[in-house]
Amino acid sequence: MTSAPMPEFPAGFRWGVSTSAYQIEGAVTADGRGPSIWDTFAHSPGRIVDGSTGDEACDHYHRYAEDVGLLAGLGVSAYRFSIAWPRIQPTGAGPANPAGLDFYDRLVDALLAAGVDPVATLFHWDLPQALEDAGGWLNRDSADRFAEYADLVAARLGDRVKLWITLNEPFIHMSLGHGMGVHAPGRMLLFDAFPVAHHQLLGHGLAVSALRARGTAPVAIANNYSPVRLAGETDADRAAGAAYDALHNRLFTDPLLGRGYPEELGFDPAVVRAGDLDVIAAPVDVLGVNYYNPTGIRAPAEEDSPLPFEIVPLDGYPRTAFDWPVAPDGLRELLLQLHHRYGDALPPIQITESGCAYDDEPDADGRVPDPDRIAYLDGHLRAVHEAMAAGVPVTGYFVWSLLDNWEWAEGFTKRFGLVHVDYATQRRTPKSSYAWFRDLVRR
Ligand code: FCB
């Protein structure tokens, strides 16, 4: 970590932290909430490394007031949370469950009272199980259901939410959830998962117009991006890199910004109906960028590989407890790439997730020192600043995450929080990164 002072960010830059519903809320049967695909998946033996579930998670559903206090103490201007669709529509269809809406109503009011802008994500992967039973995102109908749900939420919260995010990381939901089967709903379709991309994007586009009809808050989508690092120098390696880049970085962004799907992926276009691409390209006000690390790619070693690339570990970087390489330069590279690739079509960017997992535990004095996280955030913020200095319009940065939480297939084994959570007692202890980020935001 360099000792040079952090360069100044412009006035009005949005400083925030992010969470998601299933990872923190718990209370999975409270107030009429229906089951989601993550309840089903977590309760299936062998799916989660430590055998845990989100049944209790951080018990945020009951402790939200304490957590809003932590946000106020941190001094952030925004909090990105997600709304659990199965709390609003327990079966994914029909009228809103008032008790579910009430929870987010209380949360939003508490945030506003604390001077924190509510930034609400509508879909962070917890699809109502009843919709999955009808085919989930493979079924085009889910796009309409999503827009209907967006309308119900906006009718209640649209006067107070400051930024809507329709979908979180549709690429990860497609690839890990439907391509590789390591996330819910656990399907292993490889490239046959493409309809999941299209139907999520269609749902996004329909939700954009539902949200616009209910209020004036800006609308965004949060995509995951990972710049490609070639681990070979042959033409075949370069072709593999381009294929991976098209899949991870362009599949969702090209159509959003009016370019249609990347042709080289060769997906079956049968699911794309006339007019769909116009719905998907409805303008958004902000592009949410979630970044964790670059991806090492080379040509597949096996001739009959089902994939046109092979993912390889990247050497020469420090690593997080997730074994992810720490590469702040990848964030700068990615921001510049988006800027050059899309030019004037690119809306202002907010970094909607950036963070790292380390094995943080309280020391003998009860403090939780996490110097690696401070170094991580310091490096990534400098990278954002450099990209801004080079002309990329970035207007906000959200740390993943406020709290240690239930990290999907990794259960409770990965701690991403600025605040440590003792899951046995639900005690929250701000780590040293919390004080570091607070001081930064204050300046
Ligand atoms: C992102 C997810 C988020 C969290 C972080 C570590 O892909 O959006 O919920 O799991 O990774």
UniProtKB/TrEMBL annotation:
Q: One cellular component GO annotation, for this chain's record? A: cytosol
Active-site residues (renumbered): E169, E353
This enzyme catalyses:
Hydrolysis of terminal, non-reducing beta-D-glucosyl residues with release of beta-D-glucose
EC numbers: 3.2.1.21
Q: Cite a single GO MF annotation.
A: beta-glucosidase activity
InterPro entries from the UniProt entry: GH, GH_1_N_CS, Glyco_hydro_1, Glyco_hydro_1_beta-glucosidase
Task: Give me any GO biological process, just one.
Answer: cellulose catabolic process
Q: Which UniProt keywords apply?
A: Carbohydrate metabolism, Cellulose degradation, Glycosidase, Hydrolase, Polysaccharide degradation
Protein family per UniProt: Belongs to the glycosyl hydrolase 1 family.
Name recorded for this polypeptide = Beta-glucosidase
